[in-house]
Amino acid sequence: MPSSFALALSATKLPPRSALRRIALLDVILPFLAVVTLLHNGVAPLAAYAVGSIFPASSIVVSWLRRRSFDYLGLGVLGGIASALAMAVVTGDPRFGLVRAAPAFAVFGIACLVSLATKRPLMFFVARSLATGGDTDRIAAWDARLVLPAFRKVMRRLTAVWGSQPVDVCRRCLAWGHGRESVEPEVWD
User: Fold this and answer.
1) What is the 3-state secondary structure (H, E, C) of 15-70?
2) What distance in Å separates the CA atoms of residue 70 and residue 112, rounded to the nearest whole number?
3) How far apart are the C-alpha atoms of 139 and 187, rounded to whole Å?
4) pLDDT tens, 98-146?
5) Which of 3, 4, 16 is nearest to 138 (CA)?
6) In this structure, are residues 159 and 121 in contact, taking their beta carbons and an 8 Å threshold?
7) Burial class (CB in 10 A: 0-12, 13-18, 19+), 156
8) pLDDT for res 116
9) Distance, CA of 145 to CA of 130 (rounded, Å)
10) 87, CA 20 to 30 Å: which among 17, 61, 102, 145?
11) What are the residue ranges spanned by the domains of the chain?
């Protein structure tokens, strides 16, 4: 029989579906579709990625208008995209923008992997930020879920994936930037 604590956790209010749909749509789906569509139609890569970054930027604005607080994760992502685009424009080579962002992405991946040794891996905090919207009651409920083995397992698996992939992407981007490996040649042709 489940404990009263477990029952209370299951009754915890999740973030509104509209907030999750906004995040999925503006931060993932629309940027991807914009970039793929524009590249397929012959738009230069830098222009395609610049247009794709409009959607996460609008997500930050929507978050500000609704909560009057910044989405720091979104700001970090947008800052990374903007700095990579700026470096690519300055150098005239889109590969430089990709390679410039790769080490920072790898540092994030390494931080994820190192955090697996702690009680609360890094993606626990990222997911909490997305799921709670800064609401103190939701944060407390999110933190309380750590007693659930299935929840801990999901957070560890999520952190392991987000840790291993950036390291591999960095390795591939650096190799590609130095002409040693083909990553996505059709994007830059």
Assistant:
1) CCHHHHHHHHHHHHHHHHHHHHHHHHCCCCHHHHHHHHCHHHHHHHHHHHHHHCCC
2) 23
3) 41
4) 666 666 777 888 888 999 999 999 999 888 887 887 778 888 999 999 9
5) 16
6) yes
7) middle
8) 95
9) 15
10) 61
11) 4-188
Q: Are 45 and 85 in contact (CB under 8 A)?
A: no
Q: Are 98 and 173 in contact (CB under 8 A)?
A: yes
- Please give the structure tokens belonging to residue 166: 């950036």
Closest C-alpha among 91, 110, 97 to residue 164: 110
Of 104, 27, 119, the C-alpha closest to 73 is 27
Q: For residues 111 and 126, give the distance between their C-alpha atoms in angstroms, rounded to a whole number.
A: 12
Angle (CA) 21-26-28 rounded to 5° is 90
d(CA 158, CA 147): 17
Question: How far is the C-alpha of 111 from the C-alpha of 107, rounded, in Å?
Answer: 6
**111 phi-psi bin (left φ>0, alpha ψ -120 to 50, beta other):** alpha
Two structure tokens written together for 149: 């083995």
The answer on pLDDT for 29 being more than 60 is yes
Residue with tokens 């992939």: 165
For residues 46 and 94, is the Cβ–Cβ distance under 8 A? Answer: yes
The span from the CA of 94 to the CA of 44, in Å, is 10
What would the two tokens of residue 102 be?
Answer: 């790769």
